[in-house]
Amino acid sequence: MTQSDSYGEAFGKRLNAQATSFVTKRALPQSTIAVTELRYENPQYELSTPPAYEDAYLVAVHLQNFPNYQYWENGRAAPVSPIRPGETIVYDIKRTPIFHLNSAFHSVHFYFPRAALNVIADSAEASPIDELCYRPGVSRDDAVMRHLAQSLLPLFNNPNQASQLFMEHVLVAVGHHVAFQYGGMKLLDRPIGGGLAGWQEKRAKELLAANLAGEISLATLADACGLSVRHFTRAFRQSVGISPHRWLVQKRVELAKQLLQNSRLSLLEITLACGFADQSHFTRVFTTVVGIGPAAWRRYLKI
């Protein structure tokens, strides 16, 4: 099978852009999924090289204004429009997407073969996904995609410090969101009793786990689950036993434990990596949850 040129170094080479990527074959059964950060700083004012044919999608979050986006799909021009910072655009690779390289750009591209999206649909006991629904060459504001892409930026800047488990969490969370938001994935109704349905609880936890180092609003979580903020908060507590914020704090402490045990990062670096406001806040929360401070806990592990 030909190596895809829609993620990783091959993707960057195809667009003459600097590429930093994470690729996994274990997050979903028999599927390769990936995320690539692209930085293109010297516009060449030429058409991009078309991708190799494959039944897969790229869902990209642009982080820099692209004022005059000229795009073609299957040789047909799309309406010229801007892509604003934080907006999301979908590419169907089998439709030979190309665009005019008339502007610098900085973007995060999530790569999903259709087979991977159908693994997600199958795990949610939903119908297979036929096609993603999008307007060629037209971006949209997607708060979930924006938050998830931004959560990865510190790790792209320091890839050696990236947790593989965390990156896989983010990729799977994005995959579920894409399947639901763009693939029309139909999910089971919420159970009687007021709690979250299984898919809603899974999605909420995936989004929270993928944003340990940042912030994601209750409104974004509720929207991803198709609920109001009030209903989501009540249903989450009923299903999980604690509030979304408390669950997030516990996961941050778990990540901090992993970093204290398996890395040489300073307490300040761990504070920032786990999304705490400052080191004193980190120490206070860690001590409350674990019973001793992070420095003492790290020393204890070495005994």
> What's the count of strands?
11
Beta-strand percentage?
15-25%
Strand order of the largest sheet: 1-2-10-3-8-11
Instruction: Give the overall shape, derived from the CA principal axes.
Output: globular
Query: How many separate domains make up the residues?
Result: 3
CATH class of the largest domain: Mainly Beta
Say which CATH homologous superfamily of the largest domain is assigned.
Jelly Rolls
Largest sheet: 6 strands, antiparallel
The helix/strand order is HEEEEEEEEEEHEHHHHHHHHH
Q: Can you describe this structure?
A:
Keywords: DNA-binding, Transcription, Transcription regulation. This is Helix-turn-helix transcriptional regulator. Residues 202-300 form the HTH araC/xylS-type domain. It comes from Rhizobium tropici. InterPro entries: AraC_XylS_family_regulators, Homeodomain-like_sf, HTH_AraC. The N and C termini lie far apart (50 Å). The protein has 3 domains: 8-183, Jelly Rolls (Sandwich), CATH 2.60.120; 191-241; 243-302, Homeodomain-like (Arc Repressor Mutant, subunit A, Orthogonal Bundle), CATH 1.10.10.60. It is globular. The protein has helices at residues 8-15, 114-123, 143-157, 164-181, 198-209, 218-224, 229-240, 244-262, 267-273, 279-290, 294-301; strands at 18-24, 33-40, 56-62, 66-69, 71-73, 76-77, 81-83, 87-92, 98-99, 105-113, 140-141. The chain is α+β, with helices and mostly antiparallel strands and 303 residues long. It has 11 helices and 11 strands. The strands form 3 sheets. Strands 1-2-10-3-8-11 form a 6-stranded antiparallel sheet, with helices on both faces. A 3-stranded antiparallel sheet has the order 6-5-9, with no helix packed on it. β5 and β6 (76-77) form a beta hairpin.
